[in-house]
Write a structure and sequence with these properties.
With 245 residues, the chain is α/β, with parallel strands linked by helices. It is built from eight helices and seven strands. Helix content is 41%, strand content 20%.
C-alpha cells in the first residue's frame, strides 16, 4: 500500500486490520504509522502474520543509506547534508502540502542520524546540519530528481564537498520493491515468522522497530542487505552465513 495523504491513515489502518485478521501479511509503503504502533504489533503477533514498514526506499534515501556508511567507515567528518527533490506525480502533489511532507521528512532525516552517530563520534558527527526538501514540479510527471550537497571534512579539518544527482523514474524503482516484498512477506508467513520483519528494512526508509524498548532501526544499507540474505538463507533451511559489521 502506498499513500502519502493524511486522509489515508484511518482507511489504511482498516485495510491493515482486515488483512491481518484474514491471514494476510501487511507492509506499509507510506511514511505514516498505520502498523507502526504497539496495538498493531500485538494484532500481528495474535494473528501470527508478518508486518513491515514504513515508506518504500527507492531514490534519494537509497543513495543516502548507501553513501553515508562510506563516510562513517572512512572516518570522514560531516558538517552538513542538503537534499532536495523535484517530482511531478501524485506523490509530489500530495507532499507539496507541508503537513503531509512532515512524515516524509522524519523518515528521510532518520536515515543519516542512525548511521553517522553523534554520541559515538562527536568530533565527526556532533554538529551535522541536515536539510531535506521535496518540490512539486508537474512537467517531470513520474520522473524525479534527487540532488544532494554533502559537506565533509578530512584530516586536520580540511573541508571537501560531494555532489550527487540522481535522475530516475519513481514507478520503475518502486515496482520491483513491491514484487520482492510480496514474495518475501509470503515466504516469511509460510516459514512461521510473524510480527515485525526486520529483515525487510532493506526496502524501507524508516524501518519498523520496537521503539518502546529503545530499539534503534538499522538504516545502513549494507547491514540491511546482510540481514536480508541471512533471513532468506534461514527460511531456505540453511544457516545464516554473514555477520553484521
Amino acid at each position: 500500500m502506498k499513500a502519502n495523504d493524511k486522509e489515508h491513515i484511518a482507511p489504511s489502518m482498516c485495510y491493515a486490520y482486515a488483512a491481518l485478521t484474514e491471514g494476510c501479511p501487511f507492509i506499509m509503503g507510506a511514511p505514516n504509522t498505520t502498523v507502526d504502533i504497539p496495538a498493531m504489533w500485538e494484532l500481528a503477533e495474535k494473528t501470527r502474520m508478518p508486518i513491515a514498514g514504513k515508506d518504500f526506499k527507492t531514490g534519494q534515501t537509497l543513495v543516502k543509506s548507501g553513501f553515508a556508511p562510506i563516510i562513517r567507515t572512512r572516518a570522514l567528518g560531516l558538517n552538513g547534508w542538503f537534499s532536495t527533490n523535484i517530482l511531478g506525480n501524485r506523490d509530489g502533489l500530495v507532499l507539496d502540502e507541508p503537513a503531509n511532507f512532515r512524515t516524509k521528512e522524519v523518515s528521510k532525516l532518520s536515515t543519516l542520524e542512525t548511521i553517522c552517530k553523534a554520541d559515538e563520534q562527536p568530533d565527526l558527527y556532533g554538529n551535522i546540519y541536515h536539510k531535506v526538501r521535496i518540490n512539486y514540479y508537474p512537467p517531470r510527471n513520474d520522473d524525479k530528481e534527487g540532488w544532494d550537497n554533502i559537506d565533509i571534512f578530512g584530516w586536520m579539518g580540511y573541508p571537501m564537498q560531494i555532489k550527487i544527482n540522481f535522475l530516475c523514474r519513481d514507478s520503475i524503482l518502486a515496482a520491483p520493491l513491491l514484487l520482492d516484498l510480496a514474495l518475501l512477506s509470503d515466504l516469511a508467513a509460510r516459514d512461521g515468522r510473524y510480527g515485525i520483519q526486520r529483515f525487510l528494512s532493506f526496502y524501507l526508509k524508516s524501518p519498523m522497530h520496537d521503539f518502546t524498548q529503545e530499539e534503534e532501526a538499522v538504516n545502513n544499507l549494507f547491514q540491511q542487505y546482510t540481514m536480508l540474505k541471512n533471513a532468506i538463507r534461514e527460511m531456505g533451511g540453511y544457516e545464516a552465513d554473514e555477520e553484521i559489521d
